[in-house]
Design a protein that fits this description.
- With 248 residues, the protein is mainly α.
- The protein has one domain.
- α2 runs antiparallel to α8, α4 crosses α10 and α5 runs antiparallel to α6.
- The chain is elongated and about 65 Å long.
- The protein starts with a helix and ends with a helix.
Length: 248
């Protein structure tokens, strides 16, 4: 598979899901959607565990010492979580989504235009602003495979089906947003992969895996963790790893 494969699949999934939603989306009951979401939550846990296992990567322990990898990941999540909470990352993202929806849902071009724009904006926000978007795209760019984006594609396919049943064809247009946002993040991941040493990448991957656990808990409706507030940990992890390398 080529770099960017996950984003291509995601775009196709949203187009197909929204197309199906225009035809039969209204016939799916709430029970079916709940069951599918729970199943995806379990798969998310599996993918998260695979990523988090990078904490035991030999290259990381050789660089920072055998006892330091856990501390690096723990410190990254704590410091990143504190920074994210102080910056109100999740709250700001939600506010941005609400502002964009309110701003673009108002229109003077008729009900059809308003419905199209609202569907496009809402679905673009749901599909492009979230931990799986950032983690999956960067990880694919880093060369860690497309598993996370393929999982996201499945989630987005079902979400686009439901959205299209309510908002119409504007949901399908959000595939353009996915291509631009995730493609850019994948390029960023590729750039990081060419700069960061393997040990730093392992620390980043393990930290991202634990953040993904938070996504799984939300999908399983077990605990609503402000996952977006933890995203700064992805910046902290390589820095803490470098500090551990220096001190080792």
């Amino acid at each position: 598979m080529f770099v960017g494969f996950g984003t291509v699949v995601n775009v196709v999934a949203v187009v197909a899901g929204s197309g199906l939603g225009l035809l039969v989306g209204h016939r799916l009951g709430a029970g079916v959607r709940t069951t599918v979401t729970s199943a995806l939550g379990l798969v998310t846990l599996l993918i998260a565990a695979q990523s988090a296992f990078a904490v035991s990567d030999r290259v990381l322990s050789d660089a920072v010492g055998t006892s330091a990898p856990m501390l690096v990941v723990l410190g990254s999540l704590v410091l990143g979580g504190i920074a994210g909470s102080l910056l109100h990352v999740e709250q700001r993202i939600e506010s941005l989504g609400g502002w964009l929806q309110a701003r673009f849902a108002r229109g003077d071009g008729g009900d059809d235009r308003d419905r199209f724009v609202e569907g496009f904006v809402i679905s673009s926000l749901v599909f492009c602003i979230g931990p799986l978007t950032i983690l999956g795209s960067i990880n694919e760019g880093l060369g860690n495979g497309s598993d996370q984006l393929l999982l996201k594609s499945t989630l987005d396919a079902f979400a686009s089906l439901a959205f299209a049943a309510s908002f119409g064809i504007g949901v399908m247009a959000s595939a353009v947003s996915i291509a631009v946002v995730q493609g850019s993040l994948t390029v960023l991941g590729a750039a990081l992969g060419s700069v960061l040493p393997d040990a730093h990448l392992a620390a980043l991957t393990a930290t991202g895996g634990l953040i993904l656990v938070g996504v799984a808990l939300r999908l399983l409706d077990l605990k609503t963790i402000p996952v977006a507030d933890l995203l700064p940990a992805l910046l902290v992890a390589p820095a803490l790893c470098q500090l551990a390398v220096v001190l080792h």
